[in-house]
Design brief:
Layout (H helix, E strand, L loop, with lengths): L3 E10 L2 E2 L1 H10 L5 E2 L10 E3 L19 H10 L4 H12 L4 E6 L5 H9 L21 H10 L5 E4 L5 H14 L5 E8 L3 H9 L20 E2 L1 E8 L8 E9 L12 H14 L8 E3 L6 H14 L5 E3 L2 H4 L6 H15 L1 E2 L21 E2 L4 E8 L3 E8 L4
Parallel strand pairs: 4-8, 5-6, 5-7, 11-12, 11-15
Antiparallel strand pairs: 1-2, 1-9, 1-10, 3-4, 7-9, 10-16, 13-14, 15-16
Helix pairs in contact: 2-5, 6-11
Pathway: Lipid metabolism; fatty acid biosynthesis
Keywords: Transferase
GO molecular function, one term: 3-oxoacyl-[acyl-carrier-protein] synthase activity
């Protein structure tokens, strides 16, 4: 696999809007989690809610796409000058030669929930929500395709929590095959009742801030986020690169990982093979690390078996929660920031490590020269993806 340049990237999370806010939160170990205040009957948990999203509004030209998910997409798209850089790429290559590869696990389902809660007497959606564009899984792609003016492949991926890691693999394949010359990849997911109460029904939601890899962990905190990246075949030497990707689908169980981490191992091995690297060349691993009992046990054990003690590993979900379909790209951005800043984040909120953890998993942040980072995203149903990134030349 020829490395692909990442010429622009951004993320908006509960830690703030854009890369600087995220890096500052990581460096200062400041969490964006807060007691749940979402919805008319909030569950007793913590959430990663993007501050001020309710005060945002789409420009009038895009009002037909108005919903929480698309508002967050617009907020994230305008951070770090990303919208301008993406439009410049469309102008440079031509609208037909730029792919738009997006990911979400819930799309704009929050708007559909609201519509059903406000049915009229004749059982119709209220007039302000009779907009088909916000009631289908491709709502995000439809909105952003119009905003960016792309006419190349436009795909929406929904493979649960691996969704916005898989778009990097899709982009590399399309670039390598010559179908496109550049790809805008992204992931956006917002809080909604279906997600909060659905995960609560699975007994996976923690009543306290999540504690990845801690023996006293009690489950996940849900969050919302938007992240985007621009991928091109060639970039400046100082641009970071996607060196490899790996995907697998072990289909072991609807919501529980394979007990030996078979699918996760296959994804990691494939990513390293495409990158032409061995496990001992990885400097930092951003774990999927949801703080659920089984995920952390299986993933930590796999890392202990596959990687040397010198590799640093952590879960960063203690900062913004589990952002589901946006988790892959948010944690890819964290890896890129880690490489750029020479910062390996630890596991925020965690006080000790589960005995299954090896020496790779760290509680505290560490400053070190990092060259290679691996990001893991493992979704329900055994949808697994791993990405390998390399720091740009300095």
């Amino acid at each position: 696999m020829q490395p692909v340049s990442i010429t622009a990237y951004t993320a908006t999370t509960a830690c703030g809007v854009g890369r600087s806010a995220l890096l500052q939160a990581l460096t200062n170990r400041q969490t964006g989690l807060r007691p749940n205040d979402f919805g008319p009957s909030p569950l007793p948990t913590y959430i990663g809610r993007v501050q001020g999203l309710e005060e945002q509004a789409l420009p009038e030209a895009w009002s037909v796409h108005e919903c929480r998910n698309n508002r967050l997409a617009w907020l994230g798209l305008n951070a770090d000058n990303f919208l301008e850089q993406a439009k410049a790429a469309v102008a440079r290559y031509g609208a037909d030669r730029v792919g738009l590869l997006l990911a979400t696990s819930t799309a704009s389902i929050g708007a559909s929930e609201e519509a059903y809660s406000r049915l009229t007497e004749d059982k119709r959606f209220p007039e302000d929500l009779r907009r088909s564009t916000v009631h289908h899984p491709h709502s995000l792609g439809d909105f952003l395709g119009r905003v960016l003016g792309t006419r190349g492949p436009c795909l929406t991926t929904a493979t649960a929590c691996s969704s916005s890691a898989k778009v990097f693999a899709q982009a590399e394949r399309l670039l390598r095959l010559g179908v496109i010359d550049a790809a805008i990849v992204g992931g956006v997911d917002t809080l909604c009742g279906s997600v909060l109460f659905g995960f609560n029904a699975l007994e996976l939601v923690s009543p306290e801030p999540c504690r990845p890899c801690d023996p006293a962990r009690r489950g996940i905190n849900l969050g919302e986020a938007a992240g985007f990246a621009l991928l091109e075949r060639d970039g400046a030497p100082d641009a970071p690169r996607l060196l490899g990707w790996g995907e697998s689908s072990d289909a072991h169980h609807m919501s529980t990982p394979h007990p030996e981490g078979l699918g996760a191992r296959l994804a990691i091995e494939a990513a390293l093979a495409r990158a032409g690297l061995s496990a001992d060349q990885v400097d930092y691993i951003n774990m999927h690390g949801t703080a659920s009992q089984k995920n952390d046990e299986v993933e930590a054990g796999l890392i202990a078996r596959m990687f040397p003690a010198t590799t640093r590993a952590s879960s960063t979900k203690g900062w913004m929660g589990h952002t589901l379909g946006a988790a892959g790209i948010v944690e890819a951005v964290i890896c890129l920031l880690a490489l750029e800043a020479g910062l390996a984040p630890g596991c925020l909120n965690s006080q000790s490590l589960d005995p299954v953890c090896g020496p790779q998993i760290r509680l505290d942040n560490e400053h070190a020269p990092l060259r290679i980072a691996l990001s893991n995203s493992f979704g329900f149903g055994g949808n697994n993806a791993s990405l390998v990134f390399q720091r740009g030349q300095v």
